[in-house]
Amino acid sequence: MSSSQKFEYTPDQPLPDRIPARMLAPAQQSFTDRDRFRRELTAIFDADWVMVGRAGSIPEAGDYFTASLGERPIILMRQQDGTIRAMANYCLHRYTQLLKGCGNTRHIVCPYHYWSYDLDGSLHGVTNRKGFCPGDLENQALESLACDVYLGYIFVALKHDLAPVATRLAGLGEVLRNFGLDRYQDRFVEHHDTWNANWKLIVHNFIESYHVTYTHKKSIGPSNPTRAAEYGPVGADYYTVHSNSYTPEYFPAVFNPHLDTLEKKRFYVAGVFPNGLIAVDPNFVWWMALEPVAENCTNSRWGVSFLPEAMAGMDDPEQFIRDTVDLLVTATSEDKEMVERMQTGSQFGSANQGILHAPLEIHIKEFDDYVQRQSGAQ
């Protein structure tokens, strides 16, 4: 059986034994408690791989973007040899944030006292050097973090002894193998999009298909209705995947020659624990990397990427890109409104727990189980 056949159509079918018939959502306090939020930063974002963005968004040597690993400011920098390096984003002198946003640079220069660093973080130059003891400035470099790239996405970790991302996401890689996500071009990236909501609520929203018909009336709801949803492999420790499948009248014109018949009809949606979200259409991919800011605030870095081979088969690929980005801007804004309304509702502080739909919300339980495992390990 091919990986694309390991999906099941949900409506009007008996529930498989591996999916619990009754599942509860976390209590409201899970999304509003400040102490719990602080514990999650330590137990999850300081202890595991975290998705930060697309490797294709920094294609040339000296290209960079800044991000946060929990509360820790970091730099993602393309090196002269083509690799990507993740480094702490503070000057070794007086801790000033070195870079902001994204761009290209030949050297990293501190704006405060003009200390400079090479692209790999090695200390390059110190102004008024005679005021320092020579030995104190030898072999100094910005702190390096673990960095890995898989499916075209960059993952960063504070720990250097974690299993490779390819190992933990091997099952997801198999499901998405034919798409060639590492070859996609990144044509739209929004680095700063503030959501007034807990990061877990945003994950919950994107890894279930129950809401699609009702939330996305102006965008994807008509073409990817809830009744056409299919759930994928269940039980993976570090990811979820389902399909908001297209109805026949909305099947996309497919130009990707590597897809099988089922893949040409699906809109795959994957959650990459803890903070990555990926939605794959036959011709493009939408993605989001979440950066928790507070218990009720999250920065979302998100973008849309396109396969050059697919674009080459279109009469007007640039118009297709514009139309797709416009559609996904609308869909994302619809999600944002509902997630922020969930955050507002959670402020009531009830101890009563919501009830999850089986199987359309099974992946919420799987993500919550991951959060509990990580939190319990600390």
What fold name goes in the CATH topology slot of the largest domain?
Answer: Naphthalene 1,2-dioxygenase Alpha Subunit, Chain A, domain 1
Radius of gyration: 22 Å
**Elements, N to C (H/E):** EEHEEEEEEEEEEHHEEHHEEEEEEHHEH
Major beta sheet, specifics? 9 strands, antiparallel
Structural summary, described in words:
With 378 residues, this protein is of the alpha+beta class. The protein has two domains: 3-48 and 169-376, Naphthalene 1,2-dioxygenase Alpha Subunit, Chain A, domain 1 (Alpha-Beta Complex), CATH 3.90.380.10; 53-147, Rieske [2Fe-2S] iron-sulphur domain (Rieske Iron-sulfur Protein). 22% of the residues lie in helices and 26% in strands. It contains eight helices and 21 strands. Strand 5 (72-78) and strand 6 form a beta hairpin. The longest helix is centred in the C-terminal third of the chain and has 30 residues, at 317-346. The chain is globular and about 75 Å long. It starts with 7 loop residues before the first strand and ends with a helix. The relative contact order is 0.18. The model has no long low-confidence stretch (mean pLDDT 95).
Furnish the topology, listing elements before pairings.
Blueprint: E1 8-9, E2 23-24, H1 34-45, E3 50-54, E4 63-69, E5 72-78, E6 84-88, E7 102-104, E8 108-109, E9 116-117, E10 123-125, E11 144-150, E12 153-157, H2 165-168, H3 170-175, E13 185-190, E14 194-195, H4 199-206, H5 212-215, E15 229-231, E16 239-244, E17 268-272, E18 276-280, E19 284-294, E20 297-306, H6 308-312, H7 317-346, E21 355-356, H8 362-376
Antiparallel strand pairs: 1-15, 2-21, 3-12, 4-5, 4-7, 5-6, 6-11, 8-9, 9-10, 11-12, 13-20, 14-20, 15-16, 16-17, 17-18, 18-19, 19-20
Helix pairs in contact: 1-8, 4-7
